[in-house]
Amino acid sequence: MSETEVPRFSNQHYQLFGYQPSILLEIFFAVAFFCTVIFHTIQIFQTRTWFFLPFVIGGYFECIGFVGRTLLADQAHDWRLGIYVMETLLLLLAPTLFAASMYMTFTRIIRLTDSQKHSLLPTQWLTKIFVSGDLISFLLQAIGGGLHASANTLEQEIRVDTWVIAGLIIQLVTFCIFIILAVVFYARMRQAPTMTSETLNTSWKRHIVLVVTACDLILIRSIFRLVEYASDSDGPLMEKEIFTILLDSVLMFLCMLFFNLFHPSQALNEIQITQPKFLSSTKSIRDRCLPSAHSVASLEFREVRQPMVE
């Protein structure tokens, strides 16, 4: 085999990973992501927070990706090339979908608190700019991840990795800008809160902090992935599974778990994101008030009739 040739899946000695995956860890995270994403699915249908759908899809990406890693734990390479490409793509792209929901959540909090003046960018551009950057990052990483299995030489592999690296760089830049915007917004709101924000009973402050925290976790993960793809295939990051687990899997699971515990609907229900509950409570109030109004009207009518009887 030439120096520039990359070992292919047809080689019986070829290993899919630079390390021996732990099947127990793969099963654990497959089950963990399954539990949290099922909970998210229930939450999104109960609260109708459809803008959070990309986040939920990303959760399914993580779950299916770890199912794939479980099947690949024995490093069998014959019929499992498709599974390898699938799990690589899904685990690579899932955080990009998480990010899209972070951007939309932040925009909705600004509108809820009527605090557009504290945002460095107009709200009508916030989602468009950041989701567009997220989409470009998603496409570049998808192209690179999809072409990775077809690279037969070292030069081709480097060229393919360049697509992924470019997507990760765009993601990093987008995240850094977004985190700055969110932190500045939060600081301004603490110094000069709007009248609307003062009257709200929702925990929008906590959710701003949560959005920034989630973005920080995704940022750390993206830095790890960038270094991983930019380094040699025999580097320490590629030879130790513990780095992938701690700097990717654990961080993304925490991101999903946090939003299970503090779902965006808790902060955004006052803009009718939880419309069914809002409508039902409104109807209940109306039903309680109408009999009272009827009783008052009846009393007034009797008072008018009383002099006539006398």
Provide a descriptive summary of the structure in words.
The chain has 310 residues and is an all-alpha fold. It folds into 2 domains: 23-273, Rhopdopsin 7-helix transmembrane proteins (Up-down Bundle), CATH 1.20.1070; 282-310. It has 11 helices and no strands. The longest helix is centred in the middle third of the chain and has 38 residues, at 154-191. The chain starts with 22 loop residues before the first helix and ends with a helix. 35% of the residues are buried.
Topology pattern, helix = H, strand = E: HHHHHHHHHHH
Task: Write down the overall geometry.
Answer: globular
CATH topology of the largest domain, by name, is Rhopdopsin 7-helix transmembrane proteins
Q: Return the CATH architecture of the largest domain.
A: Up-down Bundle
What fraction, in percent, of the residue positions are helical? over 70%
CATH class of the largest domain, anyone?
Mainly Alpha
How large, in whole angstroms, is the Cα Rg?
26 Å
InterPro entries: RTA1 (IPR007568)
Protein name: RTA1 like protein
Membrane topology: Multi-pass membrane protein
Keywords: Membrane, Transmembrane, Transmembrane helix
Itemize the secondary structure elements and their pairings:
Elements (H helix, E strand, L loop, with lengths): L22 H25 L5 H19 L9 H32 L10 H25 L6 H38 L3 H5 L4 H27 L5 H4 L1 H21 L3 H4 L6 H35 L1
Helix pairs in contact: 1-2, 1-9, 2-3, 3-4, 3-5, 3-7, 4-5, 5-7, 7-9
Pfam family, one: RTA1
Membrane topology: Multi-pass membrane protein
InterPro entries: RTA1
